Amino acid sequence: MALLCAAACATSGSPNAPPGGADGAELVAVMDAIEQALSEAETRDVAGFPPLKSVTVKLQTEASRSVDGEIALYVFAAGSRYAAESASTLELEMRPPPRADRGILPAGDLKQALARAIYLAKVGVARAGQGTPPFVMTDIKIDLKFSVEIAGSAGAKVTLVPLGAEAGGKLNRNQVQSITLVFGR
Description:
Elements: H1 2-11, E1 20-21, E2 24-26, H2 27-41, E3 52-65, E4 71-76, E5 88-94, H3 113-128, E6 139-151, E7 157-162, E8 177-184
Antiparallel strand pairs: 1-2, 2-4, 3-4, 3-5, 3-8, 6-7, 6-8
């Protein structure tokens, strides 16, 4: 994941560029928020759930010039202006770092909404596998849709909000981001 963030930094332009623009949040800020949510979600084990094998993140982006004239990539945020013809999809496939033993903790302890959604999806799948007769889970794929929200001056804070949990309003196709998690042995 650290390699992914380094690659994102290299493509996002100047390190002095603001974290948000009129069209969305800077790619680096969004990737940092995703990495934090994944790290937090992975600290919560669900009994009998297989380990995370891969993560695929799909982001709707637009290239834009920053204040100092550098080209930067911005991820469309909820409520952002956009031009459909200038939207690009950035798809990143990652392998998680080796995992350490973790405890089983409740979802209420999770700070980030996306981490909570991942945990609750894992719990739901684990419960579905406990039917009569129980299904044996081999590979599990969880695909979550989320939006990016920007708060503070110059987009200082990026928040990832799972769809269905957003405050209101409709999102267009370019404002919907996705993360796919594949679990298995």
